[in-house]
Amino acid sequence: MKTALITGISGQDGSYLAEHLLGLGYRVYGVVRREPGAMRWLAPIADQIELLYGDLRDTTSLEVAFQKAWPDEVYNLAGQVFVPTSWELPEQTFDINVGGFARLLKIVEGLKPDTRVYQASSSEMFGNVDGRCDETTPFNPTSPYGVSKMAAHRLCEVYRRRGIYVVGGILFNHESPRRGAEMVTRKITKAAAAWQRGDRSKLKLGNVGARRDWGFAGDYVKAMRTMLQQPAPKDYVIGTGESHSVADFVAQVLVELRALNAGRFTFSTIDECVEIDPHLLRSGEILDLRADATRALHELAWKPEVDFPELVRMMVRAEVEALRQ
Ligand code: GDP
After folding, report:
1. 294 alpha carbon to ligand 1 midpoint, in Å?
2. How far is the CA of 12 from the centre of ligand 1 (A)?
3. Nearest-atom index, ligand 1, CA of 208
4. What is the pLDDT of residue 266?
5. How far, in Å, is the centroid of ligand 1 from the Cα of 56?
6. Atom of ligand 1 nearest to the CA of 182
7. 8 Å CB contact between 158 and 101
8. Predicted confidence band of residue 211 (pLDDT cuts 50, 70, 90)
């Protein structure tokens, strides 16, 4: 039986990954900062995992958690993930996203160097690129968040040269009903659930022309684990290869609401339900991100199962159901 230690286990990716690994027979430990009561996604598997207190900014806490778990695989999914916050708190973003990963790598190298390490790298490292991005596309980040992820990604490379099995999974945006409420897809589907119950207020958004390659988080965590089972460590891009605009996402949400509402009133156009708030426009906005995941397809046999309409449907229905309850 393999043992995995997951930082960020209470978040979207951590909770899906924990479920996936349990299904494969892993023993799963998770590092958490918050009270267990706050972890709603972990409730169904709470009795199958062991939670250890730890903070990526605190070396000792990580060391103690690592010693306790003594893992074969570490998945570093914790982080400060929201781009606007990285402008407000750039130093904290670096301490968590870069310093935290550096602390983990030092612990692995010092205590158990055969541990395999997965780092949550990000498509934000690429910045504005024409066309699809693969593992050879140069990085050109446009926010402190993107720079922090690039720095951590470079740490993967240098520790790999010292013999540690460490991979950076360059995941494009991946969503689900468990996505953080500050991210645009969840913000829209939460509003949609209110609209479905008759709320007529407009949702404030920023740049609705921005395009992202949105996939389903449950598909993406499977790629993380597969990356750690390869003969040699390598970085992989993970995404669907298609991008949609924020406006497309809203339009697809309205399609879902119409299907759910069966004849009753729903908004028919984005102008009826969305207003642009200039404060939500971003400096250094990345206008379009699209993955070329050919390497993952060929070497990991990975491809996404959930397409864009299905992702939107899943998120809208979960939110409507949550509000109904
Ligand atoms: P990101 O790609 O990691 O920054 O994920 P987000 O979900 O935060 O943002 C995706 C895209 O949606 C970005 O281009 C944002 O500028 C755009 N966007 C437009 N309006 C909003 C909004 O109100 N909130 C967020 N989070 N993003 C928005």
Report:
1. 26
2. 17
3. 19
4. 80
5. 25
6. 26
7. no
8. very high
pLDDT in tens, 83-118: 999 999 999 999 999 999 999 999 999 999 999 999
For residue 241, the cross-strand partners are none
Beta strands 215-216 and 174-175 are parallel
- Whether the per-residue pLDDT at 73 is higher than 80: the answer is yes
User: Looking at residue 271, which CATH number applies to its domain?
Assistant: 3.90.25.10
Would you say the pTM of this structure is higher than 0.85? yes
Residue 261: per-residue pLDDT: 82
164 and 257 fall within a common domain: no
Class of residue 196 by CB neighbours under 10 A (exposed 0-12, middle 13-18, buried 19+): buried
Q: Do residue 231 and residue 313 come from a single domain? A: no
Calculate what percentage of the chain has a pLDDT beyond 70.
98
- Who's near 253: CB < 8 A, 6+ residues apart? 188, 189, 192, 312, 316
Residue 68 lies in domain: 3-175+215-242+295-300
**Which numbered atom of ligand 1 lies nearest the CA of 81?**
3
- What pLDDT is stored for residue 37 in this prediction? 57
Same domain, 194 and 162: no
Is 287 near ligand 1, meaning CB less than 6 Å away?
no
124 catalytically annotated: yes
Q: Are residues 135 and 44 in the same domain?
A: yes
For ligand 1, whether the C-beta of 186 sits within 6 Å is no
Q: How far is the CA of 131 from the centre of ligand 1 (A)?
A: 19
- 142 plus 261 within the same structural domain: no
pLDDT in tens, 254-290: 999 999 987 676 898 999 999 999 999 999 999 999 9
Token look-up 């914790």 returns 78
Residue of 86, 122, 143, 243 marked catalytic: 122
What is the C-alpha R_g of the chain? Answer: 20
Tokens of 86: 């990285």
pLDDT digits (tens, 9 = 90+) for 291-325: 999 999 999 999 999 999 999 999 999 999 999 88
Domain identity same for 204 and 229: no
Q: Are residues 92 and 146 in the same domain?
A: yes
Record the tokens describing residue 163, joined without a space.
């013999």
- Do 74 and 113 touch, CB atoms closer than 8 A? no
Q: Is the CB of 270 under 6 A from ligand 1?
A: no
Q: What is the pLDDT of residue 38?
A: 59
Domain count for the chain: 2
Let me know whether 271 and 162 are in one domain: no
